[in-house]
Amino acid sequence: MRREGFLAHMGYHVGAGGAPVRERHRILDQCYSHRVPEHVENAASWGAPNSFQRVQKMLRTLDGLAENFRRNDPERYADAIADYEEDRNYLLAKHLPPGKWLPW
């Protein structure tokens, strides 16, 4: 049985049935600053709270989720894709440390 991912564990959901933008951003801030519970899938890969590794993992996760929807059915999941892109931009603006860049 697959374990729950960290973002879902924290209540992060997008699209028509997802949370409004302010709530999603509040949840993302918590994901950035809180410890990842050990029962969460791939917990160690999230790095320490408030770290560059954490924001990288969060950005890669959002990118991957959006890409899955783009490949699957972009018209059906347009709202979710837009939410992921908006939230990615929020993370970049708020949590990417000055002078750091992303290698992808």
Structural description of this entry:
By secondary structure, the chain is mainly alpha-helical. It has one domain (6-95). The chain is 54% helix and 0% strand. The chain has four helices and no strands. It has helices at residues 6-9, 21-33, 52-72, 78-95. The model has no long low-confidence stretch (mean pLDDT 92).
Count of alpha and pi helical runs: 4
Order of helices and strands: HHHH
Mean pLDDT: 92
Low-confidence stretches: none
Radius of gyration over all CA atoms, rounded: 13 Å
Biggest sheet character: none
In terms of DSSP E residues, the strand content is: under 5%
Quick tags:
104 residues, mainly alpha
Secondary structure blueprint with pairings:
Elements: H1 6-9, H2 21-33, H3 52-72, H4 78-95
Brief description of this entry?
This protein is about 55% helix and about 0% strand.
